[in-house]
Amino acid sequence: MPAHLHKIEAVPDLADQVYRALLDAISEGSLAPGVRITQEELAEQLAVSRQPVLQALRLLKKDGFILDAPGRGILVAPLDAAWLANVYQVRSALDGLAARLASEHGTQLDSSLIAQGRKAARGKNIKAMMDADMAFHMAIYEAARNPLIEESAKLHWRHIRRAMGAVLQSAPLREAVWDEHEAIAKAITAGKADAAEKLMRGHGLSAGNNLQRLMSDAAA
């Protein structure tokens, strides 16, 4: 056994919970781009000490969701169109492969995923919509039976989640998303691997295009 090893302090689970809560707030738009945030206010609103908030803010900064603005403090970072275009390009390819493999494995996706997604889309809770969308995609990653796909997807889903929150602010797009999901699910269930992959790739590219269009409209 090696000697003189120092104990590693475990990262408190509370910091992860704070991170997720803040990421959800950023994704939903309640913490909008450009909004100034402080440790004190966040700790008070979340009813936690400043330490887990500080740890969460460090992670959010590392992941590009917040930034330091000289003279202004910590701000919610704007959406980066170029970066997200790259993310969606990778996501489309990865998700297309997952859909193909899920179909080849004879997957029968749980129909409740679509029903719950459509129900969420008819409501006003953006977080519920994002959760339903992620549940659908995660079910396909799992059905692909390739753990590397799921692990790779997790690397960019935080950014996808934020982009998704921006897209879902547009009510007309919500039902369209689930129309695409349902078509993908039917292709997977029918064992039509080529169609499932094509539909899933198109779904990812469509989502990316919708985001770019919304960002362009907002900047106009």
Count of separate DSSP helical elements: 9
List unreliable stretches of 5+ residues.
none
Number of domains: 2
Q: Quick one: CATH class of the largest domain?
A: Mainly Alpha
Mean pLDDT: 90
Q: CATH superfamily of the largest domain, please?
A: GntR ligand-binding domain-like
| Strand composition percent | under 5%
> Based on the structure given, which CATH architecture of the largest domain is correct?
Up-down Bundle
Helix percent band: over 70%
Q: What fold name goes in the CATH topology slot of the largest domain?
A: Four Helix Bundle (Hemerythrin (Met), subunit A)
Give a written overview of the molecule:
The chain has 220 residues and is mostly helical. It folds into 2 domains: 13-76, Arc Repressor Mutant, subunit A, CATH 1.10.10.10; 81-219, Four Helix Bundle (Hemerythrin (Met), subunit A) (Up-down Bundle), CATH 1.20.120. Helix content is 71%, strand content 5%. It has helices spanning 13-28, 39-46, 50-62, 81-104, 112-121, 126-144, 147-167, 171-189, 193-219, and strands at residues 36-37, 66-69, 73-76. The chain has a 3-stranded antiparallel sheet with strand order 1-3-2. A hairpin with a 3-residue loop joins β2 and β3 (73-76). The chain is globular and about 55 Å long.
Highlighted features:
single chain; 220 residues; mainly alpha; Arc Repressor Mutant, subunit A; Four Helix Bundle (Hemerythrin (Met), subunit A); 2 domains; three-stranded antiparallel sheet; 3 strands; 71% helix
